[in-house]
Batch of 4 targets.
Target 1
Amino acid sequence: MTGPVRRHRVAPLAPPPGQFTAVLREANRRRYHRAAAFCGVTGVFLAGIFGGLAMGGGPSGVRSTIVSAAGRLGDASTTTVTATRDSRASAARSTRSGTAPPEQVKKTYLRGEILNASGAPVSGLYVYSGVLTAHGFVPNKSPARTNSVGWYMIACTGGPLLVTSWPLNLPIGPVAGGSYAARFIDTPSCGMTKHHVVTRVEEGAVVQGDIRADVACPGTGFTLWLWIGGDRSASVRISGLQEGSRYRVSGAPVGTSVVGAYGRTYDVTLSSGQTVEQDITMVCPTALTTTPKATTTPTQTPTGTESSPPADGSPSTGGTGDPPGGTGTASPTGTG
């Protein structure tokens, strides 16, 4: 009788990271349990047959041994099937619980510092990240601010940064104060964020002027915007203005920007440290919604002469045909 053939274990290939490793481990465990159960049942079956023959039970003893072994085989098979089903359910639960959430893209950050012309750090400046679109630079709503030593850190978006002395796209009153000119900063790619970005800012320009209205518009509040570089999506918003008041934007960028006031725009070209006077004429909003009342000039009829009735049969308003109480002569104001 030959011995069992010695099985050589085949070294598995290096699995890729992830779910495949867990599936392969579960498959190996199932094969091992099936082989162990089969070998155990076969051993019991053969031992019973040879034991029955050895004890002199003859064919009947062999038959009873086979029946008994078959019963045990059935029980073992049932146990194996149940264990396999339980192991599959356990593997499914393990797979579900072990499934990692989608990998989150790790944010990268830009670090830098802002200095003035003499090399001193500038604190309190707003640093906006954003993206360039067909409509210009669109800043994110949450800016960073430079600390007491002029440092900042902000998420990289792949676009430039915009440094300002005041918040963007928010109403800040009739005066936007700042000492340093707003400016854009070119940034490295988001894969090279270990670079330290050093930026120098210069003295800002000033834009100021009077607020007028195209018609009398007492008590009406106005708002205007200074679009940085002409980009409407990146602007300082001046609010709380009235006819006859003044506005002022200091820290305006060097170059050409646009002052916008409800459909009317004014180009302003600025230099560092320069002050530009630019008066603004606003459109009164009530003039756009009020319809002027129609006025009529009355026609006077000579006294004592009866006017001809209108062709449509309506009563005449002059002469002796006036209603009772009339004077017979139309007043110059039409209220007689």
Target 2
Amino acid sequence: MGRLVKLVGAVGVCLLCSTPGLSHSQNPQDLLDQLGQSVQEIKTIDAQMQANLELKQQHEKEYERLQEDGEQYEQYGEEYDSGKAHFESACGGPLPEAQYDPCNQEKAELDAMWEELDQWRSRRISWKEDLDRAERERVGEAKRLGARRKSLVEQANRILAELQRLRQFRRANQECAGLQSLEEIHHCMRRLWEGTR
């Protein structure tokens, strides 16, 4: 009977090695090491996600500054439109000679304002394009980090489940080995094997 118990114990180890999802190298220590690596990577990703969130807040502030700049740009544009309307009213058509110099001065000021508005508009377009591109990249990175974190959590949960199954298997294996008859051992091992699939 002593040999039979040893044989049953050996069969239990064999069953353990052939359990789906396990390989010969996946003993509890290997699984714990994998779990530790997953947890460490999750911590690293959490730190990266925090940095990503801080970058999002910076982008939001930058969008606010862009909005404020846009309001100033619009206001300056309205000043230009008002000056242009005044120029067209005061300096349109035939002019007395005394008005030539003031109208030329006003036109030069309007031209300078237009040039400034044009350069301002170009800066705003580049600013917004750069900010939009940076935000798209940040969003893409956030999605990648989120997907990787989800995958790691699922992997960690699978490892925990595997460790739990190993613990239950070993406990049940010991219970089977303690039975007295070959038939009882056979039924116990069969139940155990079917429960691992």
Target 3
Amino acid sequence: MKAITSSDLLEAAAYALVSERCRASYVHDIRGGLQALYGGVELLSRAAKNPDTGSLADKAAGLARSALVKHEKSLVDLVDQLAPRQEAAVPVNIGELVGEILRFISNDVANKCITFRLHTERDIVVLAEAHKIRFLLLGLSITLTDGLDAGTVIDVNVRRSSDYALIEYASVILSPTIPQLAEIWGSTTPLSSARELLLSLSQAWASDNGGRLELTAEATGSTAVRLYYPAIPG
């Protein structure tokens, strides 16, 4: 049995916070899958009322099966995303992943009148735990919008920087420091936001894998978040 460390507990807490924060986005995705399934069933119903349309019945059955398979896969993916899990590192296309994350939270962000502008280079691939890196980037993306004024634009840049994949969130107002996980665990002072916990976890994860997380003060008075992670040569 694996011993449970303070970092494990902080990570589990972060998963709970991010899952709660993204509840509306998860529900939206589930409903989208059900809509496709409903369409296939509705077509089957029409075909059943007209026995002479055999081709329509075959088409409807095919659509329903395809929708069911996709919905089952999305539910399995959802379960995998909601809690920490042991997994092997695999190649991950960072630009595609960030794009998928920003689409996933687009309704939530739009409701706050905040805009993400994504600029990404093609084919930047890293070797990482797929669900872990998605969780951290999702947590950073959604919590970095908290407390921002309506109308704020966040430029998200994904590019290669020397031997690293660089994910940059620009024009984000943040506290100037990232607390260490040991400081969070041993402190009796509450964190001011879930964002601090996600920054700390991302910093520790990047460092453990040969990368780093930086906060850089901009001339505009805001702070940019830059996450560096070793890229696969390409």
Target 4
Amino acid sequence: MMEFTLARVSACLCGILVIAVLFNPVVDSYDDRAEDLTEENCVSLGEMLDSFMGSQTDECVLSLNILLPDPGTRISFSGCTMTMENERGSWDYELRHPVEADSDRYGYDSYIVLKKESGTLIIHEA
């Protein structure tokens, strides 16, 4: 009976050690993937804004909760630079056209209106 109990205790200890050894690499891998996907999201959003400027449409309304990866993410505009930031970092995208925005930052729950005006992208909150 004693051998059975010792076998179970040693099996549990080995399991705990395996989990402890694998925990950090798995979490680091997840963080790296989340950061890469957020950067890709920033590039995709910037390319979408660039394509809007080349389209025949003069006005567009966007819901950012569809476009931003999580509620903690914010975007801001300065000159031709769009910046996306959250707790994992900050990413920049250089737009092809200058931007005039009515707010410093737009969040996950924002609705924004895009307009073209003489080669400039005008953004204001709806």
